Prior knowledge:
alpha/beta; TIM Barrel; eight-stranded parallel β-barrel
Amino acid sequence: MTENKLPQRHEVFLTDGGIETMLIFDDGQDLPNFAAFHLLQTQDGQAALHQYFERFISVATAARTGFILESPTWRANPDWGDTLGYSSSDLASANRAAIGMMHALRNRYQTSSSRMLVSGCVGPRGDGYVPSALMSPHEAADYHDAQIATFADAGIDLVTAITMTNAAEATGVARSAARCGIPCVISFTVETDGRLPSGQTLQEAIQDVDGASGTAPAYYMINCAHPTHFDEALVTGLPWLNRIGGLRANASRKSHAELNESTELDRGDPDDLGRHYRALRARLPGLRVMGGCCGTDHRHVAAIAAAVLA
Length: 310
């Protein structure tokens, strides 16, 4: 599927919420290093993943929107896989199995009014909140090549890099996806001041990646931050805002540091989050993909859908 044929450029698509927090706090699953893909090893884990996605699919089919099936592979890259004892072949098998599960869900639940896309989820090499394990764009492309190539072989519609903390790694992901001929989406996370953990502004990061990759990303997203954290960065009318096509916000207003230290899940207010999405959609002309991040579940995504589709 080529970039200009991605239906979410023109139609509303929902996606899921905070997969790791929901599996841990709601479903009682053990996710070492926040690695949801580790559940693929057992039948019970696979059943938990199915149940997780089915709750969000029900929201999309009820709302008659498209749905992006984001594979549970945010941690399925070499460094994180190594900490869990995965060899390179084990990791490739896990990535293929995750994409296979997304295809099975699409085959079972897709309808004429709820088109579904399979996205291969790429996470950062280091921590999702801290710009560690910094690489050059060339090094990042080489690092992420194996996972993205596995996704391409397994048959995906797009690659989505979630919780990117710096422009260089995001550029590498975009270049790797381009080498495989797969449309790519880059999702940056920001701190409470609206800047990436690297210190860059969203505008700087998007323009850097576009410039260094030949505008390879189909569009950009923001994830793992409350809308109030980046609201002031989105000055209406600036051309770069047209590049933002998706949002997966937290309902919690806490900073990344506060979330890391929390012993209880802060779910925020689903209806309030929906109102923020509705306001942001009026300001972001390209915003079509909407879901949640840490602490959000299917009820948050239902509230978002009700708000923006009213």
